[in-house]
Amino acid sequence: MADIPNLSDLRLFVDVVRQGNFVRTATELGMSPSYVSKRIGLLEQDLGVRLLHRTSRRVSTTAQGEKTYEWARSILDGVRQMQEALAEDTAEPQGRLRVSSSFRLGRNHVAPAISLLAKRYPGLEVSLTVLDRPVDLLSEGLDLDIRIGEVPEPHLIAHRIAQSHRILCAAPSYIAQHGAPAQLAELAQHSCLVFRERDQPFGTWRLTGPKGLESAKVTGSLSSNNNDIIRQWALDGHGIVRLAEWDCIKSLRDGELVHVLPAYRWPADIWAVTTGRLSQSAKVGVCVRFLQEQLTSGPYALWPAQAGPQGAPGSSLSF
Asked: What angle do CA 204, 215, 271 make, to 5 degrees?
């Protein structure tokens, strides 16, 4: 081995493996692809091994590259823990924090709350990714996922930010033209606006009601993978939609939407999901506690003042 590898090059190598592409990595980090390629080449020289198979479209690890990737992750995690242990002696949390959330929740509530977080803790470098698909915190290098609904992964820790449910709604114009369903089974005769949610099978709405848990197959002429689009179609009178309480409370109050089948709903609590306990990372702990405060009672709270579901939203943070 010619030299001790540069820590920044190890971090860059991990990012390249996760992205599978020099260009995507360079774009995310604000570098040129040629610079990324050069640094990986220098790392290969330092280690004396070939780390990557390179093609025009993507890169993949060699056998030694895969071994290096696992060691690099362990080394970088150790460095991160060292920095956070030292940061506990300072007043301000510092370091890089990668957060993900769904589109509407992320854009309307998490993003403005993080803006406030960044002002309070300028030593934090926060990256927020919004996308409506399940994420893998470990493989995608994320510290925190703010999600709606159940957390099935046994290796993750879920810290409840707020309680919520999904409910069925439709515009008054749709109800005036088609009527309102009186029973869950009648949804099959209605146009339903279907959204591919993170934690739900496409085209099936699970709900709890007088008979307990029930499922309804739903179809309609309009569907989308974007919740903003689905919500707007509902406001335009195209069909019945299933929305989170916090996402439709204003429209219900303003008369833009009406509650359909009010005896039915589905738990959709807001969770902050991490790979470890909050006490293990000062920056993650600060972020989760701040978001819990802001999303329940701050200026960008999920519910307007005194408008929580069944009373004030609840929280249950694990430390």
From this structure: 75
- Characterize the bridge pairing of strands 266-267 and 165-170: antiparallel
Residue 165 buriedness (CB in 10 A; 0-12 / 13-18 / 19+): middle
Closest by CA to 285, choosing from 76, 144, 98, is 144
In the chain, what are the domains?
7-87 (1.10.10.10), 95-163+269-297 (3.40.190.10), 165-267 (3.40.190.290)
Q: What is the pLDDT of residues 303-316, one digit of tens each?
A: 865 455 543 334 44
Two tokens, residue 150: 């159940």
d(CA 195, CA 201): 10
Task: Give the single-character DSSP code of 125.
Answer: E
Beta strand 270-274 pairing with 204-209: unpaired
The torsion defined by the Cα of 157, 119, 303 and 310, in degrees rounded to 10, comes to 40
Using only the alpha carbons of the chain, give its radius of gyration. 23
- The number of angstroms, rounded, from the C-alpha of 69 to the middle of its chain's C-alpha atoms is 25
**Beta-strand (E) ranges in the chain?**
52-54, 59-61, 95-101, 124-130, 144-148, 157-162, 165-170, 194-195, 204-209, 212-217, 223-224, 241-244, 258-260, 266-267, 270-274
Most confident of 5-9, 73-77, 137-141, 176-180: 176-180
pLDDT tens-place string over residues 231-255:
999 999 999 999 999 999 999 999 9
Residues 6 or more apart whose CB falls under 8 angstroms from that of 268 comprise 148, 149, 164, 165, 166, 244, 245
Return phi, psi of residue 97, to 5°. Answer: -135, 120
The position carrying tokens 């702990």 is 285
Q: Using CB atoms within 10 Å of the CB of residue 119, give its burial: 0 to 12 exposed, 13 to 18 middle, 19+ buried.
A: exposed
